[in-house]
Amino acid sequence: MTDSSSSAEQLLAQQARRESNARTYPRSLPLAIERADGAILEDVDGNEYIDCLAGAGTLALGHNHPAVVERMEELLERGRAIHTLDLTTPVKERFVDRLLESLPDAFAENANVQFCSPAGTDAVEAALKLVKTATGNRSMLAFQGGYHGMTNGALSLMGDTAAKEDVPGLMPDVQHLPYPYAYRCPFGLGGEDCWRTSAEYVERTLSNPDSGLVDPAGMILEPVQGEGGAVPAPADWLREMRRITRERDVPLIVDEIQTGLGRTGELYGIEHADVVPDVMTLSKAIGGGLPLSVVVYDESLDVWEPGAHAGTFRGNQLGMAAGAATIEYVLENDLEDHAAAMGDRLRGRLEETAATFEAVGDVRGRGLMLGMELVDPDGEPDSLGHYPADGDLASAVQSAAFDRGLVVETGGRDGSVVRFLPPLTISPARIDTVAEIVHESVRAALTAGQDRAEAPA
């Protein structure tokens, strides 16, 4: 039985006994959280951590932001409904107003909104159903390195094959195309040649009657691949994907579940390229920390019959209240600009770390969606001169950072990328502290690895 005096160690042991083997974060981040405020987490033992995970990018304003808490308290104090299926309320209409105001005008002016079950992966499933219904086609175009969720259709789109190997019955007819991952270019090319060749490959594939690809229902992509390792798509490549899909009447789905609402230094990641998609999937930040997901799409695709897509918890009024408050705060305070400035500050400091340690191979990303790829300098470099990815070192850096009071995520190829997704409200002073901890954590991880290598057998 749990009581208020339980230690973090006791609670973590209890969790391990009772929860699914599929749990992930507690394995690398042994936290039992007592309270949270802004960018700070405090565990039940009184230890404090700077949170650069922020609910995998969900907490745009950080933990328990007053604007969000006040709006939720107001809803409860007034006796508002908290669950309404898809029946409307003033709270819901306010959320839709704010959401459409935040979107690029050229997209919002012809947009319809579908509320889904509350996770981002549910929005992806709805988007797949939408474009398949609208086009009458069944195949999908996705990208290597992509991540769109863990339900059946979304998992089928995933680039990471390890996550899919033991899952039977995945959605067929998914073509995984080369994403312009500049540091690990799928064509072994450097500079602009990487994205140009990727774009040419996509266009040739779609134009080739012998490609084996039947007419696609849609293309889905991330403006910055998140779980794939904070890999930004070049703006010119995004514009090419829009041109190629538009010329072939292929709906373009942009997954903004992690990039949306200021995270990349623009309100939406696609705005770095000034591209208007046909469909956008949104979750995470738009719920203000509560479960909420939507699909926003061009009204020309809305050929659904009533009841064609549903979900019991698509009427989460607390999520809509929190989401509207979050969107309003982001817009009123230009948090996308703050994210860009803080991202530049952190990236500059991380590049100093890369200049110090050969094991830091690449620093990349946009805004406050950054990644630092760890490599093995003793390995054989690839054709671009880049050393092999080192997931073990990334895990060691994550662990060393945790010991020093910093929560970060890992991802990317072989888990080799240390990822940074702090609240968009994070201060310059705290950014500097994050950078200092990361620098010392890389040093500590490398020293520990050297000590292990030199220890007698």
Automatic annotation (TrEMBL):
Pfam annotation, one family: Aminotran_3
InterPro entries per the UniProt record, alphabetical: Aminotrans_3 (IPR005814), Aminotrans_3_PPA_site (IPR049704), Dat (IPR004637), PyrdxlP-dep_Trfase (IPR015424), PyrdxlP-dep_Trfase_major (IPR015421), PyrdxlP-dep_Trfase_small (IPR015422)
EC numbers on record: 2.6.1.76
Region of interest (Disordered), residue spans: 1-23
Biased composition (Low complexity): 1-15
Signal peptide feature range: none
The protein's required cofactors: pyridoxal 5'-phosphate
Molecular function GO labels: diaminobutyrate-2-oxoglutarate transaminase activity; pyridoxal phosphate binding
Keywords: Aminotransferase, Pyridoxal phosphate, Transferase
Highest taxon above the source species: Archaea
Family indicated by similarity: Belongs to the class-III pyridoxal-phosphate-dependent aminotransferase family.
NCBIfam families for this protein: dat, PRK06938.1
Protein name, UniProt field: Diaminobutyrate--2-oxoglutarate transaminase
Taxonomic lineage from the root: Archaea, Methanobacteriati, Methanobacteriota, Stenosarchaea group, Halobacteria
